[in-house]
Description:
2 domains, pyridoxal phosphate binding, Aspartate Aminotransferase, domain 1, Diaminobutyrate--2-oxoglutarate transaminase, PyrdxlP-dep_Trfase, Aminotrans_3_PPA_site, 4-stranded mixed sheet, alpha/beta, 16% strand
Amino acid sequence: MEVFEKWESEIRGYSRMWPTVFTSASNARQVDESGRSYIDFFAGAGVLNFGHNNDRMKRAVIAFLEADGVVHSLDMATTAKRDFLEGFAEKILGPRGMAMRMQFMGPTGSNAVEAALKLARRVTGRRDVVAFTHGFHGMTLGSLALTANDYFRAAAGVPLEHVVRLPFETAPGGGMRALDDYRALLADSSSGLVPPAAFVVETIQAEGGVNVASGEWLRAVQQLARDVDALFVIDDIQVGCGRTGSYFSFDGMDLDPDIVCLAKGIGGFGTPLAMNLVKPEHDARWSPGEHTGTFRGQGLSFVAGREALTYFDDDAFMARVRARGEVMAEALGAIVRDAAGRGFEVRGRGMIQALDLGDGALAKAVTTACFEAGLLVCPCGTGGRVLKLIPPLTIPDDDLTEGLEILASAVRATA
Ligand code: PMP
């Protein structure tokens, strides 16, 4: 298509996977210029947990604008900001007994990760940070240093420093042993290793291929961080905010992180917002105004994000997410059984589920077949061989069923 050739030469950033021009979107559907409707199993890479143009959020934002609410406020206090903070404290932190301070970090997940790195260095006076193979934490220099993907890191032109990379639990060489070996090396001065400022981990590596860590391993990472006086940081940017069937992906795992990075879904329906939850003793290490940013006070994001919190007023919404996650896992399990002997695999928790096809070219062909049949689904993981399914949590049952059927047919026709 001509428009894509133009965009390629001029902005180098268009989506090659879905070569069409979209005009409108509602809940789990996007419509293109020709009037064709697509089911969205991508949901803005985990941003649109509550669907495109979520009605509650749309109405709240329109009312806010009509009342001339403060849209841009930097660090000033506004009622929209206060309502969001109070709502988050009351509905999310309070019931969990989490005494965390909330720090707004700007619009993007990378902003939150950068701030966590900076604060961990300030608190510990140390430079290095531990991150894990197959992790994804962002594209800015600090967050990119933590990101494991070579292709993305190569864009920086020179090696990025100050990261010790350990194997994620499910990766080759991963598990308890790797943590113990690192602990032993730190204790042996002849290794030359210095203790890190922080360990930064995703409980489920979303971009890395939907690799699911166990609570036991995550607790061991936390313990190691404590033992060497480093901070334990959970990046819940993609799998937090209800995605796994509980607000935080680590709920119920007996974990007590020093910092939790949140973004994507917390801003509501694509209205950008990033926030770190920080233990008060660490938060106190920054004086007011020491870490600032122009876009940390986006009024529309506070309004939409406040509406998002109402989904967690009772457990019904999360119970529905867990039930739909099972529907997704069963449908993917059936695809794997149909293709017995091909070595396909299903992974996930709640409404982040994945089909590992073991082959990037095959995953790309299935993605294209899905697109042609009206389903948006995105490959991720090593060599792009994993299809990651992250529909809006609010997806109607009919759309979920139809999307899963399209995927099954696409795999049958392609594999
Ligand atoms: N952390 C995780 C776990 C992510 O999935 C992402 C985005 N895919 C980021 C950080 C970076 O967020 P952003 O693109 O908003 O900077």
